[in-house]
Amino acid sequence: MIYSTLRSISWWLPIGLLAWCSHNMAATVASTAFYYGSPLPVASLATYDRVVVEADNVVNLEALRSGGAKVFAYLSVGEAEGWRESSRNLPSELFRGSNSQWQSRVADLTQPGWKQYLLENRMARLWDKGYRGFFLDTLDSYQLGTPTPQMQHLQAQALIDIILSMHKRFPGLELIFNRGFEILPDVGKLAVGLVAESLFQSWNPITQSYGPVSESDREWLLTRLNEARDRYGLPVTVIDYVAPDRAPLAEETARRIAALGFYPWVATPSLDVVYSWRQE
Fold first, then answer.
1. Residue 32 per-residue DSSP state
2. Domain ranges within the chain, ordered by starting residue
3. Under CATH, what is the fold of the domain 9-278?
4. What positions does the domain Glycoside-hydrolase family GH114 TIM-barrel occupy (predicted)?
C-alpha cells in the first residue's frame, strides 16, 4: 500500500548505478518513477518511461509528458483514503471495516456503489483531464477481515469484475497493478506492469521505522514476482524503503533488486523522492 505525506527530500547516488541497473535488467522493464509530492520536479520525472503520480498534485500534465513519459494516476481500489475529499461522504454500506495502519476504510467490492464511485467519480474525472493510465493500489485489501473462503472468493470475483469494467468503460486504458497476485490468472493480461513493495527493505507504518525484510517473506514475494514476470509477461518494479540518511544501503538495495531483473525504486514511504545521479 502506497500513500503520500507530501514532503520533499533528495538523495545523491552514483551515476554508475543507473547505468549498471540498465545493463543488468531485461529490456522489457520500463523505468518507472513514483512521486506523490507537490510541487512535482517535472524535468527529472519526464525522463522516465513511466511516472506514477497523485493526480491532485499535478498542475500541468502535458509538461510531465513532454519527455515522452507515460503518466499513471494513483487509484486506491480496495480502500477509501481518509484524507481524500471525494470519499469522505460515501455511505457506510460500501465498507466492510477499516485499516487502522493507514486510517482508511476497507471497501466491500461487491457493492455496486463502490464500483460506481471508482469508475464514474475517480476514473472518469481523471480520464477527462487526460490520464490514460492508472496505478491500482490496495488490490489485496479485500483479504482483510474476510472471515470465510467463500466471502473472500466473492470479494475477489468482484475485484476482477471491477478491473474488467475499467477496460470496457475506458478503451485504450493502461493499468499497473500493485501486487494482486491472486487475480493475475483472470486479469493479468490487462496489465502493462506489476509493482510490489518491500523485497529487501521495508517500512513499518505502526512503529514508524525502517527495517530489513525477513528471508521467509522475501522468498514468498520473490516467487510471486518471478511468476508474474515469467508466466504473465509483466515487467516488474520493486519499491523498497530506506531512510534518507542511509545512501549506501539505498544503493546496495537498488543493485540487489536490479540483479534479479526488476526495476528498482528505493525511496521513503511518502514517495516524494527523485534520485539525483552524479559521479562520485
1. E
2. 9-278
3. TIM Barrel (3.20.20)
4. 42-271
Using CA atoms, how far apart are residues 218 and 230, in angstroms rounded to an integer? 18
Tell which residue, 225, 173, 167, 169, has the closest CA to residue 196: 225
53 burial class (0-12, 13-18, 19+ CB within 10 angstroms)? buried
pLDDT at position 2, please? Answer: 55
Q: What percent of the chain has pLDDT over 90?
A: 73
128, exposed or middle or buried, with CB in 10 Å at 0-12, 13-18, 19+? exposed
Task: Check the CA dihedral 26-218-194-86 and report its sign.
Answer: negative
Helix residue ranges, H only, the chain: 15-24, 42-45, 61-65, 112-116, 124-128, 149-169, 184-187, 215-230, 247-259
Read off the pLDDT of each residue in 175-186 and give the average, rounded to a whole number: 98
CA-CA distance, 44 to 65, in Å (whole number)? 11
CB environment 59-92: b (16+ within 10 A), e (fewer): eeeeebeeeebbbbbbbbbbbbbeeeeebeebee
Is pLDDT at 27 greater than 60 in this prediction?
Answer: no
In this structure, of 86-100, 113-127, 129-143, 219-233, the range with the lowest mean pLDDT score is 86-100
